From TrEMBL:
Domain of life of the native organism: Bacteria
Lineage: Bacteria, Pseudomonadati, Pseudomonadota, Betaproteobacteria, Burkholderiales
One annotated GO molecular function: aminopeptidase activity
Protein name: Peptidase T4
Family according to the record: Belongs to the peptidase S58 family.
UniProt cross-references to PANTHER family, sorted A to Z: BLR5678 PROTEIN, D-AMINOPEPTIDASE
Pfam family, one: Peptidase_S58
InterPro entries named among the record's database cross-references: ArgJ-like_dom_sf, Peptidase_S58_DmpA
Length: 332
């Protein structure tokens, strides 16, 4: 029977570390996921207003298709500078591609950002936004255990009209394969059913990890955009103001193209946990990583295993989204 890993975090996938920087004055932050090598990777973007960097390097038809780290941040376009700090920090440690003897190491660090500039934080930073520095600090802070809720890239996030946050979950499939998800939840849609208490992701919950609420009765789900007027009053019905940023990871020996399929399947986890999802106002972006430690075999058996991993990744992402909002509501 599949169960969460020891920590119920994405770092249950061996070889991953996560570091946060949280600034309560700016009301924003950054989250960096480090790998212990050059992992196969891909990305799938479903939202209509994404903010990304180096995603084309992960296209299956292009040369690289691998990463040394993934950077997530608030700050909209300013937050993309987090990746600059991560690149500098990793290169200084000798991590990255060495294309010529004596030249600096070149880390591959794709990034994605969410918009949290309208939440009242102090952004009088002039010509020195803090995001590059946060990237350096997040690399230094990376560890197997990390906080959830209003931290890191989820510090300034909102989920509909409620506080969003940073969430994670994992699943040990029981045969050597481990899958995990990390998410910064800032969707325009609601994570709750019409009762306002039960998460849409409730069927996937394990051991009460996000409160254990279950639906009472069967309230009709007929409104395609619940509380649209309230969201408009909050200024959230604008392209790029909302998004869900996620990373899913496993320890299988996937190619870049197979990672793309993993990311595509994992996007269903957002649709399971948020209603509506992938709107023109969101920038929903899912990265998928694979360490290569566990073989999957060949032929049809390999395709079956890839489908199993993708389904597990979607479940983990749905659970991580609910955990993000649950921990934010608890003050995490």
């Amino acid at each position: 029977m599949p169960r969460p890993g020891l920590l119920n975090l994405i770092t249950d996938v061996p070889g991953l570390l996560v570091g946060h920087v949280t600034d309560d004055t700016v009301r924003s932050g950054a989250t960096v996921l480090r790998t212990d090598g050059f992992w196969a990777a891909a990305v799938d973007v479903r939202g209509g207003g994404p903010g990304t960097r180096e995603t084309e390097a992960l296209a299956p038809e292009n040369l690289v298709g691998r990463v040394h780290a993934i950077a997530l941040a608030g700050g909209s376009v300013f937050g993309l500078a987090v990746a600059d700090g991560v690149v500098a920090a990793l290169s200084a440690q000798g991590q990255g591609l060495a294309l010529k003897p004596g030249s600096p190491a070149i880390p591959v660090v794709p990034a994605a950002v969410l918009h949290d500039l309208g939440n009242g934080g102090d952004r009088a930073w002039g010509l020195e936004p803090p995001y590059r520095r946060w990237g350096i600090e997040a690399v230094a802070a990376a560890a197997r255990e990390f906080a959830l809720g209003r931290v890191g890239a989820g510090r300034g996030a909102m989920a509909g009209h409620l506080p969003g946050g940073l969430g994670s979950a994992s699943l040990d499939l029981g045969d050597g394969l481990v899958v995990g998800a990390l998410v910064a939840a800032n969707p325009i849609g609601s994570v709750y059913m019409p009762d306002g208490h039960t998460f849409w992701a409730w069927p996937f919950e394990i051991d009460g990890e996000f409160g254990g609420h279950r639906p009472q009765g069967h309230a009709p789900v007929v409104d395609p955009l619940p509380e649209a007027s309230r969201l408009a009053d909050l200024g959230r019905l604008q392209p790029g103001v909302n998004t869900t940023l996620a990373v899913v990871a496993c320890n299988a020996d996937l190619s870049t193209a197979e990672c793309k399929r993993l990311a595509m399947m994992a996007q269903d986890g957002i649709a399971r946990a948020v209603r509506p999802a992938h709107t023109p106002f969101d920038g929903d972006t899912v990265f998928a990583l694979a360490s290569g430690a566990q073989g999957l075999g060949d032929g049809r058996a390999r395709a079956v295993q890839l489908g199993r991993l993708g389904s597990a990744a979607a479940d983990c992402l749905a659970r991580a989204l609910a955990r993000a909002v649950h921990e934010a509501a608890r003050g995490g």
